[in-house]
Design brief:
alpha+beta; three-stranded antiparallel beta sheet; 11 strands
Amino acid sequence: MNPAALTRGLADTLPANVTLFENSPVIGYARENGVRLTTTDGTVTAPRKIIAVNGFAEKFGYWKGRLLPFLAQASLTRPLTDAEEALLGNVKPRGLTSVNAFVSTTMRLTTDRRILIRYFLRYCPSQRAGEESVAKAREAHLRVLRSRFPKLSELSIEYTWTGYVCLSRNNAPGFGKVDSNVWSAVCQNAVGVTKGTISGLLAADMACGVGNPLIADMESLGQPSPLPPRPILDVGVRLRNAWDSWRGRHEY
């Protein structure tokens, strides 16, 4: 399943009573007669709000000191030629994920004959990645590609991109009512497609007063536990990542 295709498909098939605003960063948030969001091009007001921005929830004042944002970067090669595909043995599309996917390599052979590489998740409290970060990721992915498939020495990378995942110390989601008229569906602990879908659906049910027996199941998972203060947190997370990376060094 392609998460990007799923997202685009959902956006293209929204019901008539839903308006989608893209490329509209929120630069201000106030709770006045409901909620008011200010963007660079205007404002949106509503009696109730569901916050579904994952690690950015802290910017709105929710789950402070409880969320761990990680940066994930991936690359996609150009399509394989017939000769290159033959070198691989004309295998069918498939995917491989290592035991510890956070510090090792995930690879997929896509249906359009490309190789997708996702290597290492990096703690990133700023949730910002510039061009230099993307370039370094591209170089790392190319090294992994060459080490895994030395016969594909001419295969180049066509796309590299960055995304973010949100974790909690105890693997619990940031779900439920967090203010008098605000509900939360964040922190899916790197399983966003499934956990994000169900938590968003249930948050909407709660906000609309719709009963759903799965709400109790979601609430039974608990809430994100408090984290140590920074910079102690930063040091601890990076040391843990380094230790996991060393233990999984043979999986690269």
